[in-house]
Amino acid sequence: MEYNFSAIEKKWQAQWKRDHAYRVSNESSKPKFYVLDMFPYPSGSGLHVGHPLGYIASDIYSRFKRLKGFNVLHPMGYDAFGLPAEQYAIEHGVHPAVSTAENISAFREQLDNIGFCFDWDREVRTSDPSYYKWTQWIFLQLFNSYYNRLTQKAEPIAQLVALFEKEGNIKHVCPGDYAIRFSATEWNNYTHKQQQDILMNYRLAFCGYGEVNWCEVLGTVLANDEVINGVSERGGHPVVKKKLRQWYLRITEYADRLLDGLQTIDFSEAMKEMQTNWIGKSSGAEISFQVEATDGRNGLHLHVYTTRPDTIFGVDFMVVAPEHELIERITSEEQKETVEAYIAYVKSRSERERQAEKKITGAFTGAYALNPFDGRKIPVWISEYVLAGYGTGAIMAVPCGDERDYKFAKHFNIPITNIIGDAYNGEEANATKDAKLENSGFLNGMVMRDAMDVVIDKLEDMGIGKRKVNYKMRDAAFSRQRYWGEPFPIQWKNGVAVALSETELPLELPAVDHYSPGPEGEGPLANIPEWVARELETNTMPGYAGSSWYFLRYMDPHNQNAFCDRKASDYWNQVDLYIGGTEHAVGHLLYSRLWTKVLCDLGHIGFDEPFRKLLNQGMIQGSSRFVYRIRGTHQYVSAGLIDRYEVDKLHVDVNIVDGVELDTKAFKQWKPDFADAEFILEDGKYICGVEVEKMSKSKFNTVNPNTLVEKFGADTFRMYEMFLGPVEQSKPWDTKGIEGVHRFIKKLWRLFFDEQKGKQWNEEKATAAELKVLHRTIKKIEDDTERFSFNTAVSTFMICVNELSDLKCHKREVLESLLIMLTPYAPHIAEELWHQLGNTSSVLDAAYPKYNASFTAESEKEYPVSINGRVRTNISISLDATEEQVKEIVLGNEMVQKWIEDKPLKKLIFVKGKMINVVI
After folding, report:
1. Mean per-residue pLDDT, 848-861
2. Which pLDDT tens digit goes with each residue over 352-365?
3. Average pLDDT, the chain
4. pLDDT reading at 89 higher than 60
5. Is the pLDDT confidence value at 44 over 80?
6. Between helices 768-786 and 790-806, what is the axis angle to 10°?
7. Largest CB tally within 10 Å, which of 34, 467, 490, 828?
8. Rounded to an integer, what is the distance from CA 778 to the centroid of its chain?
9. Neighbours of 894 (CB within 10 A)
10. How far apart are alpha carbons 416 and 405 in whole angstroms?
11. CB-based contacts of 190: which residues, under 8 Å, 6+ apart?
């Protein structure tokens, strides 16, 4: 019987679908286990072989836990809103709803071909109104809540209003504006709009005005990565900063809880470090520097946050962000033109460019701040490397102790004060905390780290500074001037944001014919008269809105009365294993953690961390192929001969290359430009160049999984993806190697069937040697799968099949257990052979074989036998043999007798379990 993988895989995929084999119940006596993949954007290009890597890993683990007796939730859906889907639709002249549905259909076909165990009854699509109804509902929970710093949790804004009516905000500092202070009487006398404006500074989802990148020529707002050196990436048109109404999430209120939560979850240390650095918690002081106003007015103060108050006497200049509100008031007439020109330059730059730029730029304002301890005048500069959103938007620069400040001072010839003596060599800054301070007034002679608290105490006594904890992280922008996203359930009435009632949800996205922005750069919804007439918000939510909570909807996807029933979320609880890429470290993962904490605080779920364990899969890189065209001709020279010619290096489709050998006929048919190609061969072949790059359509190095499944089968494809290397590491794709895995699967098949003789298996009792191979494999596969070492597990299967083949083992007792272990990795062939053995139930529900250590225990040892110190042979001897028995066995061995040559035995040295030495 031949191994017809195509027929087998189609047969069982259809059977599993008919039987709802992967349907999961929320009611089970089994322990639960929740395995989740980061769901895909349904782009038009479909999946290439790099995309399923994480999905196959999660599929193996899900099937493994099912065999181990768990009720496993393993769902899948689509992150269908957002910029990629909108851009694809624009490029292809279709509505995003249409293109997204088409792309999802193509994705589903590819996923089904690979044979995943997803419970498709739980599928979600973030662009479906029945889904985003609850995204809008959760937004309203954020909008109608504030973070109570006293209880350290989110609470309803209505409770805060009740407190304001009784006692003002004396116990509740305003996070949006620390200067807001009012009594109960004042609150009760405010107008409705005044009260709502104040509450907006407390809400967890709040509205403000933020700068966006506006391109007049393209008539659109651009993301930071669409702007390069002040112009649009598409077309090179001028881009300027423009202030538009924006929504934000007050994630900064959760900074400490997000940090503390990292200690309770199983993320890699690298991932924890990325999130920790992004949050950027630091301790220091906020200092108020008096500024000499150029118009002669006093009372102006520049607030600076610093982690190094001990360096206060080494401040040689101040740097403020070009957007800082004080700039216009402190800039001198002489510097006004220079400052305005510099600000215009900075407005054309994205924040990313400003932070990454190594070029030193800046402008002197003409103003001076005063050192609070010695009255020294400190020049105030502006520079793009200081951002308004970080800290106070101003820094005190200490060139002898900070390398960036040092380079700035050198560039603009600003004198440098040495406050650390010999620790400063004049050639570079030294950020030490262990030097003794000099030129530092009352701090002279103190070690820097000891001086920190002394300075802060002094500042607080003088009323010009205070201890402060600061965070690098800023509140998360939560609106986009785009069409394809969730509409905000907000109306604007007389300048006040009013939440729609829950009965009005979902607020559905209206159909539009074009996606151009509104007249002032607002979202495209501003062009719909009916929408504007209802005073609805014209921005839409960002792509990460729907993905921040999708893991909860999978638990209860068809509930029309709640985003997720509390009974369902209590049962499934946290995601036990989440698999996805590191690129979402400080985006999706942080936002999902935030939403989970808020929903927990408000009592909607019972846990405040979404993911118990995170496994980051690596990237499968493309192995690109190149042809070499002799410049100015239609001749193509093989890679080994290119040194003889001037050539142009061109990417070629890897799918028309066998390893490195080009299919020249297919190449000529690939594109019209190559129809007249002539080839200069080496040894009768055209050999391509090879280079490992990112897998991308533009590099023609993508491989469609469907192609490989059709040629080798889904089971081969699944096992080969795992065989490439550790799942968490990046590695290059090489289709050539898949043939070895396919040969292994065919060898496995031959343990059951011979192509001529047919059935091979029998009911005979397994030998000790066969049971040893089996149980050694059980132990290794179980251990490897539990620690996600899927590549070594595949190798173990190969070793096992080789050893069973050598033993000519065709015994059902052994083969049945092997099939169960193989099921997570190659489910189709496992199910087929399981039934061929006569089983009527599915292998998917079999019990995982139990390891028995007694079968793998060693009963004998192969000893090296030396004659006068030189090893001459090896003899296997029972571990229970006595020394007399060992002596008898050794001296009776033919090889030993040959080397002794009838010479008298002087002695025999036996070290049990190690060696034997015969001395003659």
Report:
1. 88
2. 667 666 789 999 99
3. 93
4. yes
5. no
6. 170
7. 34
8. 33
9. 7
10. 10
11. 182, 198
